[in-house]
Specification:
Helices cover about 50% and strands about 20% of the residues. It is built from five helices and four strands. It has a four-stranded mixed beta sheet with strand order 1-2-4-3, with helices on both faces. A hairpin with a 5-residue loop joins β3 and β4. α4 packs across α5. The longest helix has 18 residues.
């Protein structure tokens, strides 16, 4: 079950039923099933608070993922800073919606076991993000 909530920001204007189906398809492509996923869209202040309190990091980020997966069922709490997504979209010269979708699936891919911190891992993550976004763009979901 996937839930979407907003705190201190407007709820993004996405087709969340389609996002739900898409994330299920992406998880299945990685041999996983969707468990309890909670996406919380927030502002920079909230994500900084979460980053400081739970991870002891003192910086802004676009997403923080807490993994509660068990076996092949992915689950977790995913905090997404809408403000950072917007500034990243502007910096990268991409649309806000496409950057938001990339961040949404990025969190799911972490829950599927894909990392992006070690040598060469960022490129692997980006390839998986691109494959997931191709599914979205194909519109078959």
């Amino acid at each position: 079950m996937i839930e979407f909530e907003a705190k201190n920001v407007e709820m993004p204007s996405l087709d969340f039923a389609r996002v739900d189906r898409w994330l299920g398809e992406v998880a299945a492509a990685h041999g996983r099933r969707i468990g309890n996923l909670n996406y919380l869209f927030c502002d920079d202040e909230e994500i900084l608070r979460v980053n400081r309190e739970f991870l002891r990091h003192d910086y802004f980020t676009d997403i923080i993922t807490f993994d509660y997966s068990h076996r092949d069922r992915v689950g977790g709490d995913l905090f997404i800073s809408i403000e950072t997504v917007q500034s990243n979209a502007e910096e990268l010269g991409v649309s806000y919606d496409s950057e938001l979708l990339r961040v949404i699936v990025h969190g799911l891919l972490h829950l599927c076991g894909i990392d992006d911190k070690g040598p060469g891992e960022r490129e692997i993550m980006e390839a998986h993000e691109d494959a997931a976004l191709a599914i979205w763009k194909a519109g078959a979901i």
